[in-house]
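hey so i finally got around to running both of the ones u sent me last week. sorry it took forever, my laptop kept dying halfway thru and i had to restart like 3 times lol. anyway pasting them below in the order u listed, first the sequence line then the structure token line for each. didnt double check formatting much so if smth looks off just lmk and ill redo it

first one:
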Amino acid sequence: MEDKIRIICGIIYLLFVCCSLTINILLLIVLIKGNKEFKKSSFFILAWQLLLCDFMALTTPVFLSVPTTIAGYQFYSDFFNCFFSFFDKTAYYGTLLFAFILTINRFMVFLFPKTNEKFFGNPEIFYTVVFGWILLAAFLIPLTLGGSYNFFNPVLFRLINMKIDNRPWYSLHIMEPIADHFSQFIPWVMIVIYVITFLEIRFGIYTRIRYGADSISTTLPPTNASKTKKRGEIRILLQCFIICSVFQIEWAAFNYLPKLPELLPFIEPYVNTMTSIMTVCMNTVHSIVIFTFTTRARTLLKSLFTNVQTNSMFSNAIFIIQKKPSIAPIVQFRRSV
């Protein structure tokens, strides 16, 4: 890659990273500000985990990709490369795992509400989250120690998966196949689950099969409260479906876009740049979706900016009020004379 193109790509990449960090930080502030309300919802508890994975994913471009691209050479040691590799893998598989757990949660809400409370109620959801992180660590630590690393190539401007020779048998025959199949099939499984959930919401297919065709017609009409709750659950379902669809796009991009330079070698720097930027955009989708579909999150976001303006006006008002009392005693004294 020519120096001019490399620096321009690095700067563009940096701009996207800054935008992604800004949006994710805003969501972090909103979740903290509305924690008393959001902690009651399993969706937002899992959204916390996705946000944490997004921040972990952004550590790679901030500390590794952008600096080495602008510098034009790899100045980090192998240890630091392995360190960032572990963060990158944790972010990717963590996002995939908790998005899958979120899919199961939405599935159970509509089809198995009683079972859903056992795993995603309060405080059961916290046990589920802890189990998810333990499962993730049990998978990633052997995978990394087994000799599978991601090294960033500042010339090609992309992460390259490197595997050492003579890897242990558990890495070759257990961990690596699990990693490949997990990232390939889990997004499709989530899509199927969302389709089943949608069919249940729209046509009540599972209810008809389990309780009979006349069960829907004989049920009591829903109240306004139940209608409002169901609309809220459907909005959350839509958010989860969009988040899940992003994985399909990311998987397709990383599997098919790198093949384009085989046909047109001169476009390799641009394809790699586009792939890296897409990765950053993927780490912003969760925040954008929540702000788009969650009214409470948008309200808290607006309050962050309105409070700044109000505090500025209020400070000026205090300054004016403090001036007036200094005149009032003088006027009162003159009248008394």
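and the second one:
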Amino acid sequence: MTNPLVSWVAELAAELGVDSSVVDRELLLDVARDAAHGVARPAAPLTTFLVGLAAGLNGGSAEAVEDAAATAQRLATTRTPPGAGS
């Protein structure tokens, strides 16, 4: 049985003209999770969009994706969680 997420990413990458070898699904899902939990749920898609945009503007390599993702994860995981009193 084909994983629908794998086939969706492959199909979308092909249609967008993106090299699917630089699409690290697990990394992007981790970034989305960290943004959703560390910021707010709606931050997940916005964060992954910004990671992709930053990576594209910085050459579009797998390394550019990893660097942008690391920055997003660092910021999201060091924030005070939503609703936490100080």
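quick thing i noticed on the 2nd:
The CA atoms of residues 25 and 38 lie 20 Å apart.
anyway thats it, ttyl
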